[in-house]
Structures are given as structure tokens and as C-alpha cells.
């Protein structure tokens, strides 16, 4: 291992600690300075939206929690049949559904997954290939309204998405690809230099809920961290980084979803 690589590894390991010596001399966080935060939910673009169904009790679910944990695994092959809109709705609700709001000056959301300080930095984007009733396009989830909005009304993303996912065609051509993008300042407002660690931990919470929710309704998923950052961000219309702007967004994690193939 050369000296440059060793140095970069050392810096990454410091990120894992979160509470490191640099914090001692850091200035107060924006919260400590009583500065306003940014909204806890991203405003819609104003494009067409689709209301999602919520009659989850009509879904066919199998297995106890013990069964789901024991059977959970990464699945890269999916049946040809599409997801239903109700199944997609359930997966979105399971991973980012809003239960309630709290606070007045700087409100936060309480959701179906935990988040450090209830900061919830993630926005969910969907590359939809095969969901009943939905045209192929790129969508954004609006958790407060429990709706989908057209993010990019285009159906020619398959090759670009494959390239952005480093050639992982199974993910690019799955019925749905979930992409979780972070707005880091939501976390930085409260935690400053510690924010990066916390939001990455939060990503794990979100994806594990997806695994268990998929398993319960006969679907499969596979967590993906290997992608071309610039290409995936560009597909979602994010400005290239690095940036310290408060409205900066970047993709952090992805996971394709499809019906499980009968064993």
C-alpha cells in the first residue's frame, strides 16, 4: 500500500469515529447558533403527481418477523411480472413513510425508520421500468402526501442507468430501482462535522426496512453501493460536487426491486 493510499484510508477511518479531535476546535453548529434549518421535506417540482393506495391489509403477506429475518438475502434475479402500485406504495411507506411532524420553527418528521435527531436527510427517487399503471419514467416520492411525482418524464434511461451502475444490468432493468439521495445539510445543521457518519448509518436503516418489506410480499432486493457518482447524480439532475451549498443533493445508496422467482 503506497503512502497516498494509506493517508486516505486513515482519513476514512476518522470518519467512522465521528467524535474526533477536530471537533474540539470546531465552531458551533448552525443549530447551536440558532440559525434556521432547511425544510425537512423537499418541495415537489409542481409536475404531475400520482396518489398511492394505502390498503396494505389487502396485500398477501407471509412470514413472522423471525421468518423474514432468517430468509432475508440479496436477490439479483426477478420474475418478469410487474409490481402492483399497492406493492410499490407499501415499500415506499415502509422505508420513508411519515408518521407525524414535531416542532414549529424547525419542524422534523417521525418516520417508519430511525434517523439521528429525526433529521431524515434522504429523498427517494425511483427508476420505474415495470409497475402496473405507471409509465416508464423517473419518479420522486413525496412522503407527506404519499404521492409520486414525475421527476423526469422519460423512458430512455436504461443504458445511461446501466452505465451509472457500473454495468449492473440486473439493477437497471429491474421493475423498480430505488435510489436514496441525501440532502446533507439537514443533518449538518444539527451535527456539523459528525453529520456524514450519522447519515450513512441512516442509509442502512432505510435499506434494511426495504429488505424486510420486500421479503414479506414476495419480492426481492439487493443493496447497491457500487455506482458512478457523477453519472447517477447527473441522471437525477443534481449539480456536480463537491459543494457546501445548503441545498446540495447527492445519491448515496440504491436497491432494485422485483418479484421473487418461484423456487
Walk me through what this model shows.
The protein is of the alpha+beta class. It has a single domain, classed as NADH Oxidase (3-Layer(aba) Sandwich), CATH 3.40.109.10. The chain contains eight helices and nine strands. Strands 1-6-5-4-7-9-8 form a seven-stranded antiparallel β-sheet, with helices on both faces. Strands 2-3 form a two-stranded antiparallel ribbon. Strand 2 and strand 3 form a beta hairpin.
Main features:
NADH Oxidase; 19% strand; 8 helices
Total strand count, please? 9
Oligomer: single chain
In helices, the fraction of residues equals 25-40%
- Mean pLDDT equals 93
| Strand line-up in the sheet with most strands | 1-6-5-4-7-9-8
Under CATH at level 1, the class stands as Alpha Beta
Q: How many domains, in number, for the residues? A: 1
- How many whole angstroms does the radius of gyration measure? 19 Å
Biggest sheet character: 7 strands, antiparallel
Rough shape? globular
Label the CATH architecture.
3-Layer(aba) Sandwich
CATH topology: NADH Oxidase
Distance between the termini: 44 Å
Amino acid at each position: 500500500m503506497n503512502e497516498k493510499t494509506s493517508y486516505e484510508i486513515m482519513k476514512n477511518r476518522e470518519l467512522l469515529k465521528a467524535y474526533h479531535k477536530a471537533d474540539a476546535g470546531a465552531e458551533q453548529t448552525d443549530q447551536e447558533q440558532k440559525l434556521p434549518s432547511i425544510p425537512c421535506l423537499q418541495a415537489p417540482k409542481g409536475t404531475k403527481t400520482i396518489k398511492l393506495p394505502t390498503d396494505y391489509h389487502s396485500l398477501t403477506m407471509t412470514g413472522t418477523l423471525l421468518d423474514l429475518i432468517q430468509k432475508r438475502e440479496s436477490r439479483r434475479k426477478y420474475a418478469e411480472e410487474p409490481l402492483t402500485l399497492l406493492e410499490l406504495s407499501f415499500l415506499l411507506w415502509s422505508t420513508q413513510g411519515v408518521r407525524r411532524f414535531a416542532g414549529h420553527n424547525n419542524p422534523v418528521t417521525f418516520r417508519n425508520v430511525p434517523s439521528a435527531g429525526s433529521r431524515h436527510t434522504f429523498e427517494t427517487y425511483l427508476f420505474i421500468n415495470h409497475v402496473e399503471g405507471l409509465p416508464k419514467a423517473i419518479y420522486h416520492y413525496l412522503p407527506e402526501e404519499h404521492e409520486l411525482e414525475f421527476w423526469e418524464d422519460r423512458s430512455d434511461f436504461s443504458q445511461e442507468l446501466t452505465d451509472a451502475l457500473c454495468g449492473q444490468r440486473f439493477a437497471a432493468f429491474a421493475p423498480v430501482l430505488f435510489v436514496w439521495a441525501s440532502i446533507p445539510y439537514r443533518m449538518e445543521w444539527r451535527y456539523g462535522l459528525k453529520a456524514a457518519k450519522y447519515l450513512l448509518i441512516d442509509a442502512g436503516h432505510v435499506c434494511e426496512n426495504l429488505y424486510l418489506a420486500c421479503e414479506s410480499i414476495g419480492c426481492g432486493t439487493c443493496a447497491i453501493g457500487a455506482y458512478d457518482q457523477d453519472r447517477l447524480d447527473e441522471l437525477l439532475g443534481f449539480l456536480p460536487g463537491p459543494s457546501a451549498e445548503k441545498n446540495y443533493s447527492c445519491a448515496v445508496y440504491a436497491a432494485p426491486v422485483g418479484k421473487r422467482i418461484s423456487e
